[in-house]
Amino acid sequence: MQPRPDDLAVQTIELTKVFRDFWRRPKVRALDKLSLEVRRGEVFGLLGPNGSGKSTAIKLLLGLLFPTSGAIRVLGRPPRDVAVKARIGFLPEETYLYPYLNATETLDFFGRLSGLSRVERRRRVGALIEMVGLGAARNRPLREYSKGMARRIGLAQALVNDPELLLLDEPTTGLDPIGAREVKDLILELKKRGKTILLCSHLLAHAEDVCDRVGILYGGRLCVVGAVADLLAKHQLTQITLPSPRPEDLERLRGVIEEFADPAEIEVGHPLDRLENYFLRIIREARETRPQTQGAAAGRFEPSLFRRVEAPAEVIERLTRPAPVEPTRPEPQAPAVEPEPEPKADVLQRLAAAPQAPEVSKASEGAAEAPQPAPQDAAAEAERRSVLDRLVQRPKPGPEGEKPS
Amino acid sequence: MNPNARARQRLAAAVFAASLAAYLLGSLVARLLGRPALGDLVRMATCLPALAAAAALFADRAVWTIARNTIAQAVRVRAAFVILAVYLVLVPALPFLVKGDGTLRGLLHVVIAYSLIVAGMLLGLLTLAVSTTTLWSELREKQIYALEAKPIRRWHVLLGKLLGIILINAALLAFMGLVTWGSVQFLVLRAERAAARIPSSAAYEKKVAERGLRDAREQVLTARRTVLPDPPPQSDLDDFVGSQLEDRCRRIVRDDRIPPEARTADPATRDALIRQEAIRQLVEDFAKIVNSVPTGYTRRWHFSGLTIPRRHDLNFTVRFKFFSSDRKSEEPDHVRWEFGVPNRTKAYRYDDAFLPDEVHEIQVPADTIDAEGGLEVRFQNREPRRPTLIFSEADCLQVLIPVGGFAGNLARGLAIIFIEVLFIAVLGIFCSTFLGFPVSPIVALSVLVVIFLVGSLKAEFEKGFTFDQNKDSPTAAAAERVTRVVMTGLHAILPPLHKYSPSAQVSSGEEVSPLSLLEAAWSIALAYGGLLMLAGAHVFERREVALAVP
After folding, report:
1. Secondary-structure class of domain B293-394 per CATH
2. C-alpha B388: how far from its chain's center?
3. B150 contacts A113? CB cut-off 8 A
4. Model-level pTM?
C-alpha cells in the first residue's frame, strides 16, 4: 500500500549530500540518493553504524545542512520553512545547550523562541522539568549536569512546543537503563497521542523496543526499510511458551513434537528475562532501602502537556490497520531481506555494541507492542508493570483524563 | 511567527531601507551642491524614521529572547564583570593620583579625558571580543542546532546578538558616565570646601582658590561652541590685488617668471595668463600678510553670530595659538589683546606675554559683544625682540561661547562613544557570519586600524605632508599618487570614526553639538550598521551552520 503524500511527516527524494573541502572538491558522499518516507503517527528508526549518514540526514531535515541534490519535505513543506519549525522538536546527537543557563531558564528560552505565551511557558516548563526527572536540579546551571541529565534537558527542550514531529538523534545514548527506559516509554506515550517520531540510533535494542518501522543506512544508502516485526520474524520457526511442565510431561510433549520436526532442530529451555527488566527490578529494590541520589530522578509522563495530533478518521483508520507484511526494498542493489542468510544484519550486529534481546521471545509479537513477559516469570513481570505504571500514571487527573496504560 | 508580526517586520525593514537610501542620496546631493545645511536637514529628516524602524525590527520576541541570552552569556561568563572591574580599578582612583598642572581646571581636564578614553577603549575591547565570538561559539558549541529547530529566522539571531551587545554597552556606558560625573562633582566639591576653609585674612589665597573654581567652571564644566573669525572682507582683498596687480605683472615679466604655457601663446592670451599668475601670487601674499603681525602692528578680526547674553558676569573664551618668526626664542612674546569697541560696547584690554606654538585661552566678559552678536578683536605685537607673530592655521584664533552645561555635554560625548562602539559591534557580528575565531577578531581589528590610519594619513596629507620632500624622486611621487588614490577611496567608503574625539571635546569644555551627534549617528551607526547587518544576514542565511566552523 503506497502512502499518500499528505500522510507523510517526512519525505526525502533521492537526497544526496556531498561534503566538500575548502577548494570545493568533493570529499565525502555522506548521503547517496536517500529516499525516505516517514508516515504520520509512526515511530521510525533510522539505524546504522557510525558514519552511515544518520545525523547528516537529520541535519538536512532541519536545514542545518543544504542538500547537494534531491528534495526534502518536512510536514509537507521545505525544511527551512519557519511555520514547519513551530511544529517540530529536535534532540541533537549531543545536547548542545547553554552551560550558563539552568534548566528553567533553558526551557523558558526555547519556549520563548517557539512563540509560547508567558502563561503557557509557566505551565509547560515546570511540568516538563518534572517529567524528565530534573526537578531537583532545576536551578543548577547546565555546565554542572551529567551527560544523562544533559540528555534529559535536551529532550525537554525538544518537547517544549508540543511538537507534532519529533526528530531524535541518538535519544538514549548517555542515559542509564532507567533513563533509557523512561525515554522509550515517553516515545510510546507520544506515539499514542498521534505524534510522529523519527529517531536515529545505533543502539539496536532500544530501536527495536519502540520503532514501528526501521530503515538501515550504510554508507549513505538505505539498505532496507520495513516493519520491525516483519524484518525480524523467523517465519520458518515457531515458538510455544507454556508454564514449565513436569519432566515426564515435557518428555511426552517432546515425543509429540518430534513427529513434526527433525529432533536436531528442536530447542527446549527456559526463556531468558531481558537484562533491562532484571536491572530495573534490582534498582527498584535498592531504592526502597536507600535515599534518592542527587541529579536526575525518575521522570513521569505528563499527558496534559501533549495535545493529540488531529488526523482525519480515514488516515487513522489506515494507520491502525496491521502493518504491511512485505518489507519494502527501496534499492535494487540492497541485499535481499531473506530470513537467512543476512550478511548486512551480521555486520550490523557486530558493529553494534548493545546487547540484542533474544529474538525468540519476540518473533510472535506485533510491531508496536511492548515485549510480552514469559508467563512463568510472574514476579519479574509484576515489577516491570509497576515501573511502567509509575512512569506513566499521573498523580492527579488532568484535563484530558488519560488512563494509565 | 504570526503573519502580523511578519508584515510589521517587512514594513520596518522597508522604512529603514528607504531612510537609508534617502540619507545616502541626500548627503550626496548636499555634498555635490556644497550645502552642508542641506546635509543636516536630510539627516534630521531621515533619522527618526530610521531609528523607529530599527526599534521595530528589534522589538520582536525572538530577537529580544536572543538578546537576553547574549546578555546572560556576557554576564555569566563574567566578560562584562572583568571589564567593569578593570574600569573600577583604573578610574575612580584617578582623582587621588593625578595632579594635572596644579589647577582644578587641569585636574578636571585630565580626569574627564582619561576616564572617557578608558571607557571607550574598554567597551571597544569588550564589544570586539563579544561580537566576534558570540555567533562563532554558538556554531562551535552547536547550540545553533537547537536554535535552528525553533521557528525563528537566522537574521533574528544576528539582530538579537546585536541588541544584546547594544544593551550591555548602554548599561556599562551609563555606569561609566555616572562615575565620570561623580568624580567631577567630588573634585569640585572638594575644591569648594577647601576654598571655604581659607580664612578671610588670607585674601590672596582665597582669591586664587575662587579663581581656580571659576576657571574650572568656565573652561571645563561647560559646553562651548567654537566660532571662527569672519574671513577678511572681499573688498580688502580686491583693494590689495587692485593696487598691486600692474606692478606684479611687470615684475613677473622683468624677473622672467612667465608661466611656461604663456611663452608660446599669442600676445593677448599671454597677457591674460600673466595676469592670472599675478592674481594667484597676490591672493597667496594677501593671506600671508593678513596672518602675520610684525612688531608694532595691530591685526583686527571680526566675529559674528555670537548668541550669548551680553552680560558682564558672563565670560566667553578666546582661544589662540601663534607662531613666532624668531624660532630660536623660548621666551614668551609680549602682546596686547583688545576686545570690544569703545563707546559702542564695553572694551577690555589685556597686556600679557604668551609662549608661541602653544594654545592659550583668555576669558572675556560677554558685554564686549555688540547688539548684532558681533565681536571686534584686535591683537598688537609689542615684543621688543621684534619677531613677526603668525596666525597661520585656520583654527589659530577661535571664540568659544558657552551654550550648555557639563552634564548634557557629557551625555552627548557618551552617546558618540556609544555610536562608535555600536559600529564595532556591527563589524564584529558581520565578520563572524563568515569567519571563525581568531580570524574574525583579527579582521575586525584590522578594519578599525585601517579606518584610523586612513583618517590620520588624510589629515597629514591635508597639512602638506608629502613622500617626496625634495620633488626629485619619481618613485616617491608615484607611490604618493597611489597612496592618495587608495586613501581617498578608503576614506570615502569607511566610516569617519576618526572625526570624533568626544573625550577631548568634553574634557576641554567644547560642545559636542547635537548636529554632530546626528551626523555621527547616521554616518557611523545607522548607515554602516544597516548595510553591514544586511550583508551579514545575507551571508549567514546562505551558510550551512552544521559544517565544521572555519
Report:
1. mainly beta
2. 32
3. yes
4. 0.80
